[in-house]
């Protein structure tokens, strides 16, 4: 979160996918309704609970897709393909270079990459 905040992004962390969905239900616009252009999710592929790809699919079904960047410590081609098929903006391998992550965020948000 320090990296994203140092780049000027507001960052919020959730321990599980379900925790995010509960918070989104309490605050419409945070995952239960169409997001504004300033929202992006960065998810560990194996986030506890339902998992990153399943969360992405739930948001898609709710017609509240957020740009999603998935980080993975493993190179699982099937999960990577499923994530991209579900609309992931990018799938990055961990450890991830900070500059690469910031470029992926900017791209997912339709912004110019940081210099």
Question: Would you give an account of this structure?
Answer:
This protein has helices spanning 2-6, 17-26, 52-61, 77-85, 98-108, and strands spanning 41-44, 68-72, 90-93. It is globular and about 35 Å long. The longest helix is centred in the last third of the chain and has 11 residues, at 98-108. It has 115 residues and is an alpha/beta fold. Helix content is 39%, strand content 11%. Residues 30-37 have low confidence and may be disordered. It has a single domain (2-108), classed as Response regulator (Rossmann fold). The chain contains 5 helices and 3 strands, in the order ααβαβαβα. Strands 1-2-3 form a 3-stranded parallel β-sheet, sandwiched between helices.
Radius of gyration: 13 Å
Span between termini: 19 Å
Mean residue pLDDT: 82
- What is the CATH C-level name? Alpha Beta
Q: What would the CATH topology be? A: Rossmann fold
How is the main sheet built?
A: 3 strands, parallel
Reading the helices and strands in chain order gives: HHEHEHEH
Number of strands: 3
Structural class determined from secondary elements? alpha/beta
Could you list the spans in which at least 5 consecutive residues all have pLDDT below 50? 30-37
| Total count of domains | 1
Beta-strand percentage range: 5-15%
């Amino acid at each position: 979160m320090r990296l994203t905040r140092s780049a000027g992004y507001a960052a919020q962390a959730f321990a599980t996918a379900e925790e995010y969905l509960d918070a989104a239900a309490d605050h419409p616009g945070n995952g239960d309704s169409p997001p504004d252009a300033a929202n992006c999710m960065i998810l560990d592929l194996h986030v506890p609970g339902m998992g990153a790809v399943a969360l992405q699919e739930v948001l898609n079904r709710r017609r509240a897709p957020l740009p999603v960047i998935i980080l993975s410590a493993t190179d699982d081609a099937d999960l990577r393909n499923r994530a991209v098929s579900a609309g992931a903006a990018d799938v990055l391998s961990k450890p991830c270079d900070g500059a690469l992550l910031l470029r992926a965020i900017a791209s997912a948000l339709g912004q110019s990459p940081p210099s």
